[in-house]
Design goal:
This protein is about 15% helix and about 0% strand. By secondary structure, it is low in regular secondary structure.
Length: about 190
Amino acid sequence: TQEVKTSMKNEMRTLTKQELGEILDNHNLWLSSNGKQGEKANLSYTNLSSINLSYIDLSSADLSYVNLSQADLSSANLSSANLSYADLSSTNLSSTNLYRANLHNANLSSTNLYDANLHYANLSSTNLYQANLSRANLSSTKNLRYANLSSADLSYANLSCANLSSADLSFANLSFANLSSADLSSTNLYS
């Protein structure tokens, strides 16, 4: 595991503000022209830790393996974005739209997802240890299998129809959470 992390760090690229601005401008053009102009943003393997991207529209962007730890992405649009294997630890994702986002194997430990929209997101094998998911919408999230939600705050979260089979919810705050029709088979609910 250490070898993989070292290899990934060696492959991480950094961008100047101008380079990032060009990528974001091209992505906005790509979105507004329905893909006829510009280019979809590819920020995979990029170090964007501690950056402020609040209110940004990166829907459908490739953000796999990106380092966004301690970044501010509050109220951003990341719907249908690929965030698999991304480092989003201690990131502010409050009120962020993550509808249908792919967060497979992402690190969201200690992340603020207050009031985030995770409807239909793929959160399989995702690390959400101590994440704030209070009032988050996780309804119909078909893949929370094997997710680590231990010590997470899920108070008032909507988990209706979510697949939580084999997830770790030990010591999680589930007060007033909606778990109607959720799949809790083999889920660790120890507290």
